[in-house]
Amino acid sequence: MQRRQDDSPRIGISACLLGEEVRYDGGHKRDLYIVETLGPLVEWVPVCPEVELGLGTPREAIRLICNPKNPEAINLVSRSGNDLTVKMRRFARRRARELAKENLSGYILKKDSPSCGMERVKIWNEHNQEISERQGRGLFADELLRQFPNLPMEEEGRLHDPQLRENFIERVFIFRKLRALFAARWTV
Length: 188
Ligand code: SF4
Fold this sequence. Notes:
- There is one protein chain.
- The chain is an alpha/beta fold and 188 residues long.
- It has helices at 32-38, 49-52, 85-99, 139-147, 162-183, and strands at 10-14, 43-47, 62-66, 74-78, 104-109, 121-124, 130-136, 153-155.
- The chain has a four-stranded parallel sheet. The chain has a four-stranded mixed sheet with strand order 4-3-6-7, with no helix packed on it.
- Strand 3 (62-66) and strand 4 (74-78) form a beta hairpin.
- Iron/sulfur cluster (SF4) is lined by residues 14-16, 22-23, 48-50, 110, 113, 115-116.
């Protein structure tokens, strides 16, 4: 990806939100506000964890499944039963460490995704039934939140609320200013 020459904030983003055809069904989830309104003000750093993991497009849908042997544990499993939990956790740790060098000032994640969703992601049992009283977090999002607890992060769904949107954008620009302040050499 080409870097812009200005000092626009760099924002990590779930690639499908920019219109990239990386979803399991070969489609995308282009978000008009993100692309057309926010796009000209920022520099995107798109990531699709599932494609980068090597799952390809199109691919089998994956889900968060409650581990029957340990109900506290949540696994990332494909429709045919391929458990991707360890692979995705390992990938997420490495990719997040790379993203730490990207000078990000924010991150926008795709809601409901078992990889990218920040909250309220559906959890299923081993019989393919949704466990309505439980909700989870995508494994990639989980690692981002662990490694970057102070980075402004939101899901695209919440950015449709004008107040939450304003708050997020404000935090991104403040974060960028603070980053520049601490990166500069300080003198008396
Ligand atoms: S939600 Fe995340 S993993 Fe799913 S297609 Fe979008 S970027 Fe890829």
